[in-house]
Amino acid sequence: MTETSAPSVKRDFLGSAHVFASAVREVLEDRLLREVAGRQLGFSQLKLLIFVAHTNARTVGDVAAFLGVSKPAASQAVDRLVRRKWLRRTEGEADRRFAKLSLTDSGHRLLKSYEAAKARKLERIFRGFSAADLQHTADLLDRVSAQIVNHSAKPEEVCLQCGVYFRERCLLRTLSGHNCFYHTYRARRQGNGS
Question: Is the pTM of this model over 0.85?
C-alpha cells in the first residue's frame, strides 16, 4: 500500500480539510463580518453583495443560479438587502425579476470595510508562510476540490462560487473541464439573448 493510499492518510486529510474550512468560515470570515456589520448581515448575504459587485450578473435569476436557490428565495434575499439599503434595483423595470441589481454607496462601503479588515487579518495570519508554500497549498486544495466534484453524480449541477473567493476563474472549468451550474445557466441565458 502506498503512502497516499492508506485509509488513515485520506481520513486525516479530509479531517484536516474540514477543520481548515471551519476555521476559515467560522473563525475568520464570520468574525470579520461581525466586526464590520454587527449582526445585520449574514455570510450568505455578504456573498450575494460580493457577487453583484464583482460580476456582470445583475438579475434575481443570476442570483438564484449563483446561490443554487429558487428565484423566489433569491428574490427574498435581494429584498432583504434592498430594505437594508445595501443593494438597489434599477428603477423603471416593470418586472422585478429582470430589474438590474447594483450596490448602494452603503453596500460599497460595507464591502470595502470587510475587504480591508480581511486583508489586515490575512497579513497577520500568513506572515510566517512563504508565497511558494501558500501557492502550493492553494493548488493542492484546488486539485482535490476538482476531484471531489468530478466524482459526484452530476458535476455540472455544482457551483463552488469561485468568484467570491479571491479568484477570477472558475475552478471547475479550469481543472476539470466542466462548467459549474452557474456558468451553464449564464451560457444558456446569453444564448437566448436574455
Answer: no
